[in-house]
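Q: Got a minute? One more chain.
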Amino acid sequence: MDVPRSPGELALAEARRHLGYREEPPGSNRTHFGSWFGLDGVPWCAIFVSYCFEVGAGVVLGGGRSFVRGVASVPQLRTWLRDTGRWVGPGPAQPGDLVLFDWDGGVPDHVGLVEHVTGPSRFVTIEGNTGIGHDADGGEVMRRTRSGRGVVGFGRV
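A: Always. Here it is, folded:
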């Protein structure tokens, strides 16, 4: 008998399929995720997780309020998670959770999917529009090892 998988685990499986994908040309924010979403050439980490949830799990992040296919901004995602009781807050995280980051002390500005937890405040993610360093401007789908640094909280769909 198959064990039912959560929407987050299904989205995570979809995210794994895209590891190594890069925007083209580099630095352009142009991706097939943005084309799918209908908003290409913009920062795409939230668009990437929207893609993974809709294609992998049949779930539209944001409930289709702003865009039919999900959310394009991390603050918009956080608002939806909070408004619908899906906000977990500071943790603990589990595979398939959305993790929201704030790198500059303002509103959250990056999101990824928790792949697995490796210890207290340590976890591995799959993120779109990331690269070397802590910022979201790398332009690639990558597996990242993260600490609690910059984490605003987690969302569970």
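A: The chain has a mean pLDDT of 91.
Q: Perfect, thanks.
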